[in-house]
Specification:
Four copies of one chain form a homotetramer.
Chain A lengths: L6 E6 L4 H14 L26 E7 L5 H10 L7 H14 L1 E3 L10 H19 L3 E6 L11 H4 L1 H9 L7 H11 L3 E4 L9 H9 L3 E4 L6 H14 L3 E11 L1 H8 L1 H19 L7 E5 L6 E11 L5 E11 H21 L4 E2 L18 H16 L8
Helix pairs in contact in A: 1-2, 1-3, 1-12, 2-3, 4-7, 9-11
């Protein structure tokens, strides 16, 4: 395949469950071995858009662990995430991706300043892009969630930030250092998790300076997805929500990370935003996130919604969502890679609010209702083909 | 209060739980005793529309039973449907409505032809309208569900139908005879249940001839409401629904009626339509409707949705809806009365697809997704004020 | 009614929801106005036992608040806990109970040593007993839950404890001070909550010295009740439980108290005991207790149980319990009053493991499976009539 | 391995999912490759009993289809019922079982009278027994459910039945013809399904005449299992059950069979018995059994229980059971084979009420509560070792 037509997908956390499922899926769907179920951009609503074909995506990335992708794929097959019959068929593509993974940023091993690390990260991405002569490369962070960032002067000013990076210390959390490197390399960037990433004012300045777009944060793949489909129903029917309580049980790496209170705080903040956004007020009730290691790759959410109908009569809606985390996330990684690449092609820079459909905490978008977000997405992506770059919502 | 500014609400099944809750609610909300929760047309999205004020609605109707409304209200208070503290406050308004209820059509008592009955029904409605000098009166059928209608020549041709009515026999089911009378009286008509009602081709001709609008069928107040909020989520995310099974447990009169297989057939047909409509194909799985007398005025629906994600991984969503049937239906009766009156004021005749938001089987509308239906409703009702009558969708 | 045949029920927290429902229920059931549903000792399995008749129970107690019982009963009627029609019928009996309520122990108002307070509490109970010439009086703590007790020398030795009480300070938490007074007054005592109460070694010595029995702790009225019915099923079928997670949503006073982390710790400890006891090992998974004020008197528990079947196949059981807290607790208060009085009559002293059926953390009993506990209870209570005092299990 | 110590397990429906999982499991557990989870007779409570070791069970059976067992095992591995890693390890044992499967009774192919067929079936079993020199062989019917039997004279009288068998026609349903053959061959027999099987008076006479025991009917493996654990909780707590409604969604062969109304009638009858048995009265509410082919080997049951607490307050318990049918059934097949063989060894003949723990409709036992059934089982099996044959309950 000639270069220039290819699109690079550079994943932070490239050996994790989500990244592995993404690479397996792109290969399997691209080769026509399975239906493109759950790939939004492959659905009929997207026909006529000129997004990069799945089989022209090239994968690489950073990670701090070394497990080979085919081994990770086997583990996921045993957990029921990947159909065992696909393993042989995608083996070569996985090995290709495996050779494109570079050592990630490990704060504990760091001896130099973060500026030096950033140089190395930029260099890794640029060489990948050159090697594969990709038309565009999108960097997507699918690594573990980090705690929210405290306010600090250096985050507000790019110049000050770059001075801080040049000194010893760790001014930026990993997600934001990766975002810094991605933007510096001229790549679109996606905050797939609630980590700070590009959501730092100084990095927004950087994105605009380098004329690259970015999207985020925190892909909605389960409980929050359902919330943003159901809350508008209550609002449209003028039903008064008294309380909305939720419990999320999850295992795998995600469960363990979120057992850490800092990361859970990030997640909880971004999980609570859509409901308050849709209802226009805070709502009583907590959202628990429990690490249940024996759940493995699966997650279960139970939500209990108490609402009032006519004359104040109390009623209840409960739902239980049982899903496979990586299988829910991976197709959205593919969607976002294609859409951000397309946005960059169309000359968009800075935040992409039109991609809010995918996120719990959509940068630049006040609309949290799922269907209106979908309409925004569709109208934008079809507009691109008509030469409308669509500068925000 | 002077006439002409008032709007009549003529309910078929005027002594039932839904009608009683509607009359109590209009009085209580109209007097500011309770918030207008669940009244869609009272929400902020409707500000600026010129709908009839709730306290200018006048109630009357037909019924085949004789229980006084205040007695029904007491029963409903004991069941938790109506707050007991409201009973005294609305007593006079209930008595007013009670005196406006006339003997309904009882097929078993019928000795004459249906044409004669229709004359009497028309006369009841016209006298009510004159007595209260209402600007407009809307007839709404909230009586028990009837089985679906078999195809028959006379249903397709108004002239033939009227010949049949003039002969002995019962060519029309009660709901359609009421619809016939309402349209003949120049009143807007609403099929709140899945009964045939105005959904007979000859009656559509009649509605257009008399220049009156009609709306229906089968208000979505529970399981189907949630379905039309959730199914679009699966569609927008390209998740493949394998099966959707549901069980509805209900008591009260509704439960008993639907235990009858004919009526249940009507209900099931209209309940299944939205899902097939949204997904564009029939879906595996049954919808049960069980009569559980001890549930009283309450209903519980459990739905089990099996879906496939990326790479075919099977996942599940379940929900349980626990609601009070009359409290869910009554505010929609008020909404529909106001909206149909407004449509008639604006000169609309024939079916009103813009009201599809309220119905499981929306006449004239192919859109079953709840939020897009809501957008259609809002855009239409606001357009009316700008002089746009909006001839269909 | 002549004295001596009457049984006193002295409630700590005598103006709370549980106490009020108990007093209303005893009057209403005793007068034959409602069926004795949920009263275990009124069921057919107890026929032939000679327990105090419900209409010969006399109520009194301590509380730190002053709301009259009839007012509390009205509030509970509005919340659906008490049928409104009973209010008039039980009014006089409630007023009788109301006049028997004395000021409780309020640590903040305390100026003297706890020994002096204890004297006053003993005196209140003794005078009540004399006034009504009760054959026996049982003291039951239905007040708010307290945090667990730290280990301390004085709790292990009665003499040291009494020295400490005589000095300024608050060596005992309220529940244990009430237990101390009850035992000193020669009354049987019940820890209905997880508070320390009589579960202090020195108080066990006191109970035996005064030859009075006691029972506890923490009545199982919802989630834990179901757990102790379901966990034995998994054990008997050799199914391997991987994780058991639970979320409890509750409002009312109980919700607010348990929002306090200390009290929640007591509750969680006693909630987790049965599962580990039945399975013989600790099980993965958390139990959340959330205060959701808008739930009012109602509570909802959702439990998610992941288990392994043959060949390690993973399966799931989930349940949702929706109950009314006071209506679940009150009949057990009546059962325990009657059973502890009967035990004392039969000469039992110290802990009553045979009442473990009622408790999450049954004193002196290692059996946590509900049905075997029930067999123990039945066999013991019927044995009493045959002159078998049954010294423990 | 020498004969005489081996126990034969002759399965009717020997190539079905349950039979295949049973054979795979016996081999895998017997070889120590997996834990004996879900095998009741392998649990600690059974230590000291002298049941046939799992690795000394020999499998054979009848079936009307020809798919080789290893192929069925592969299908089940793909569905997640059998861990793929076991396939190679058990292959030889499966092939052994495969060679022992004989053509079953197919009513459509039948040309002779049923007596002739019975001779052939007896012969198949006897030759198997001789080939393997088994000490005892137990015949267990795990084939598709059949409709209930109408009353008929010939079912009440063995002589009349045998005359009927000798004439053309099909007096017996397949399950009962197999039972007839098993008993004639001197083998213990188990009705694992709700089919008539041995539950025909004439066959009881036959069993006693041949001095063989039999057990049944309809193993409880899901919804009913949970029912018999939960209903006793309500009874012991004197909570009044108003309604108990259930919906079962199942795929696989079982779903398809039960979609047939006759077989569903058998199943529903046996599913409803325990609840009425435990509560001592019929209870409002239906139990649906839906065939949802896309559920495959998995089944989901949702139960909704409305109950009344103190003072008539209505409350609710709901549960959702998600299980794998064959994995739930197979270990019970092993348990029953071992227990019935042991009963025969101990000289028991006729029905075995002590095995009621395993069944929805336990022959000869009025106790439906799970834990008391378990106590009956344990006490009986341990009694056998002390030389107590235990002639019924």
């Amino acid at each position: 395949m000639s270069g220039d037509s290819r699109t690079g997908v550079w994943l932070i956390g490239a050996r994790g469950s989500v990244a592995t499922t993404t690479a397996v899926g792109a290969a399997a769907v691209g080769a026509g071995l399975v239906d493109p179920t759950a790939c939004v951009t492959e659905s009929a609503d997207f026909s006529g858009t000129t997004l990069a074909p799945l089989n022209e995506l090239v994968f690489g990335g950073h990670d701090v662990v070394g497990t080979p992708l085919p081994k990770r794929a086997e583990e996921l097959a045993r957990s029921g995430v990947i159909p065992p019959r696909l393993l042989d068929a995608v083996h070569d593509r996985l090995m290709d991706a495996d050779t494109e993974i570079r050592a990630g940023y490990d704060a504990d091993d760091e001896i130099d300043c973060q500026a030096a690390t950033a140089e190395r990260l930029v260099d890794d991405i640029v060489r990948f892009r050159e090697r594969h002569r990709t038309a565009r490369t999108v960097v997507i962070n699918v690594a573990s969630s980090e705690p929210p960032l405290d306010k600090h002067r250096q985050y507000a000013d790019l110049e000050e930030l770059e001075h801080a990076l040049a000194r010893p210390g760790r001014p930026l959390p990993p997600s934001s250092l990766y975002a810094y490197a991605a933007l510096r390399a001229g790549c679109g960037y996606v905050d797939f998790t609630p980590s700070p990433g590009a959501r730092v004012p100084a990095l927004d300045v950087l994105a605009r300076a380098h004329r690259v777009p970015y999207a985020g944060s925190d892909a909605k793949t389960g409980e929050t997805l359902v919330k943003t489909a159901l809350a508008p129903m209550f609002a449209a029917r003028a039903l008064h929500i008294r309380s909305w309580s939720g419990t999320n049980l999850l295992g795998g790496g995600d469960g363990a990370t979120l057992a850490d209170s800092g990361a859970r705080r990030s997640k909880s903040l971004s999980k609570d935003r859509p409901l308050a956004g849709i209802l226009g007020r805070p709502v009583e009730g907590k959202t628990h996130i429990d690490n249940v290691p024996s759940m493995g790759e699966w997650k279960t959410a139970w939500d209990h919604i108490q609402f009032e109908g006519f004359l104040g009569v109390p009623m209840t809606l409960q739902f239980t969502w049982q899903g496979c985390d990586s299988a829910l996330a991976a197709p959205l990684v593919l969607d976002l890679a294609r859409l951000v690449a397309r946005a960059q092609e169309a000359g968009r820079t800075g935040p992409l609010p039109e991609l809010g459909f995918f996120f719990k905490d959509p940068v630049g978008l006040n609309e949290h209702r799922l269907l209106p977000q979908y309409e925004v997405l569709l109208s934008w992506v079809h507009g691109l083909n008509e030469g409308v770059a669509g500068e925000g919502v």
